[in-house]
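Please fill in the sequence for the structure shown.

STRUCTURE ENCODING:
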């Protein structure tokens, strides 16, 4: 019964799978990339490519499932606050959003075979702008409203295996989908003119694969459990169907429609982690995806720039070589610097994020996770929009033995 209730709750989350973090920069391209796949991932500033703990699910590297002991279900939600400002204007946005849902179970502990599936946002896209225009007396005072809603999400499946020499490997499949709507509306103060709204909508979908590997652990001096991780998300084609419509008091008409393909570039993530003083784990990671090579229906060649991320994290866990113990708490902190794949007037947009998080045990393999992230992107000094954002995430993780034959 417990399993059914959890899965039903997960289904409710899944219906709200589009991520809509408010940002002026999400109106460019497919939106801002989402690097926060789980609450633990947020607390460590996305440094997850080397992790394969039995307590948490690794959504970044498919090789990180070899240590699963129980069937696990994880889900989380996020509250966002964004402060936007230019040299003349200031604005505050806030919203709540679905963060992700995933479940997994071990297939063979001997060979490290595990299975993982779930849904998570791939890009963030939400934007609102409203302003008055009194430049043309013939129109009267006009109100202009521009909005963006949508983004891309990912349904994923992956599995792991322990290869010879204790090298952990994994393979994943991802289905990308989304609906994005750009809306522009003008309301005239002069009643002789009819209000009008133009909406451009995109329906998109595509499939891709990912591979991952985690090295064996080794020791050097005071550091142990030193390991390397690598994840490759392959190139894929994202198919787009578009439609432009016009709505007014006089007409509701489809002006144009079309379809085409978008070539999405490969993403590479490489990481290093190590343990020291028995209770601390340090993590370093580098990610790269060359969006300047993306081209197609919605993106023109060389319209973007390479996405790059450098991040570091540290985790404190009080018990060495133990699973998540009851009444034990885990604490995390992280930092990341990102070169976002977008430019404004020839100037690239960069982002800095600081994060912290904690997990509190409810019982064995069941815990509640929290994370807080603060970041900044853009700069008023270069004529851009400066944004400061604050994200609070709350998640639950349940573990249970499934597929065990019961005695009668």
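FILLED IN BY: designer on duty
SEQUENCE:
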């Amino acid at each position: 019964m417990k399993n059914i209730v959890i899965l039903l709750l997960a289904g409710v989350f899944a219906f709200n799978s589009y991520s809509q973090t408010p940002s002026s920069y999400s109106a460019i391209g497919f939106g801002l990339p989402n690097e926060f796949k789980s609450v633990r991932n947020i607390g460590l500033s996305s440094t997850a490519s080397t992790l394969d703990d039995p307590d948490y699910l690794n959504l970044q590297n498919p090789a990180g499932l070899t240590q699963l002991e129980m069937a696990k279900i994880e889900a989380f939600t996020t509250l966002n606050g964004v402060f936007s400002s230019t040299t003349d204007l200031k604005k505050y946005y806030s919203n709540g959003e679905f963060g992700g849902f995933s479940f997994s179970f071990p297939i063979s502990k001997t060979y490290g075979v595990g299975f993982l599936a779930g849904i998570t946002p791939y890009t963030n896209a939400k934007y609102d702008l409203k302003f008055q225009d009194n430049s043309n007396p013939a129109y009267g005072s006009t109100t202009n409203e521009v909005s963006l809603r949508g983004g891309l999400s990912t349904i994923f499946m992956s599995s792991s295996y322990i290869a010879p020499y204790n090298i952990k490997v994994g393979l994943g499949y991802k289905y990308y989908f989304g609906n994005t709507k750009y809306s522009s509306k003008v309301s005239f103060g002069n009643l002789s003119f009819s209000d009008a709204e133009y909406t451009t909508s995109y329906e998109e979908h595509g499939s891709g694969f990912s591979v991952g590997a985690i090295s064996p652990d080794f020791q050097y001096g005071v550091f142990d459990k030193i390991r390397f991780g690598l994840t490759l998300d392959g190139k894929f084609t994202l198919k787009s169907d578009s439609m432009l419509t016009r709505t007014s008091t006089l007409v509701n008409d489809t002006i144009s429609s079309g379809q085409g393909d978008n070539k999405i570039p490969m993403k590479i993530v490489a990481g290093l982690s190590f343990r020291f003083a028995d209770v601390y784990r340090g993590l370093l990671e580098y990610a790269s995806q060359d969006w300047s090579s993306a081209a197609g229906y919605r993106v023109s060649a060389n319209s973007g720039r390479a996405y790059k991320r450098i991040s570091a994290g540290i985790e404190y866990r009080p018990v060495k070589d133990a699973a998540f113990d009851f009444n034990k708490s885990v604490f995390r902190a992280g930092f990341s610097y990102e070169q976002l794949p977008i430019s404004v007037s020839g100037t690239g947009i960069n982002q800095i994020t600081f994060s912290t998080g904690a997990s509190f045990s409810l019982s064995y393999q069941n815990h509640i996770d929290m994370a807080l992230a603060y970041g900044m992107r853009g700069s008023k000094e270069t004529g851009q929009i400066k944004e400061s954002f604050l994200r609070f995430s709350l998640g639950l993780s349940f573990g249970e033995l499934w597929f065990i034959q019961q005695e009668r």
